[in-house]
UniProtKB/TrEMBL annotation:
The chain crosses the membrane at residues 48-70, 82-102, 122-141. This is DUF1772 domain-containing protein. It comes from the Bacteria. Keywords: Membrane, Transmembrane, Transmembrane helix.
């Protein structure tokens, strides 16, 4: 049951780290692009869209940290790591095919298109490769695969009788 829940958590983490971080990165990058183009800087305090994007990235980072450091099934980190590493390998072998996997069709919802463009950006900059490797490390730890062992009784030493006469 523990590994099944880890599998479900891994699927959710894959969606959060790819689509959620991709969507949020576009709004966060909007502020950097506007200052580089000579326009006024985007102030996150006054721009609620940028503030929500920063909050989404914080939540994605918090969930990433909890899954990596927490005592959950290693499948929770294995699933997203394999998706990100496989997508990076496809990117290295065939850039157009890898970029075509992100949902950027203009007929889709604008939020999905924004997430797709963010995914392409994170893939091209190597962020998915870095996250994939970081998520794969907990899979290599044997203690993550074993369940918790409940001790039946604590070990108690029996008193030793003195040997010999006094």
């Amino acid at each position: 049951m523990r590994h099944f829940l880890g599998l479900l958590l891994g699927i959710v983490m894959t969606a959060v780290l790819t689509a959620g971080a991709g969507w949020a990165s576009q709004d966060v990058m909007r502020g950097l692009v506007s200052t580089a183009g000579g326009a006024a800087a985007v102030d996150p305090v006054r721009d609620t869209k940028a503030l929500v994007a920063i909050g989404a990235m914080v939540v994605a980072g918090l969930l990433l940290g909890l899954v990596v450091a927490g005592r959950v099934s290693p499948l929770a980190t294995f699933i997203p790591s394999m998706v990100m590493l496989a997508w990076t390998v496809i990117y290295v072998l065939d850039v157009t095919r890898a970029l075509g996997l992100a949902p950027t069709d203009p007929t889709m919802d604008p939020n999905i298109v924004q997430a797709g463009k963010g995914m392409q950006d994170l893939l091209a900059k190597g962020v998915f490769a870095m996250l994939g490797l970081a998520l794969f490390i907990p899979v290599l730890m044997p203690s993550r695969w074993a369940g918790r062992h409940d001790a039946e009784e604590p070990y108690e030493e029996e008193p030793v009788e003195p040997a010999g006469y006094y």
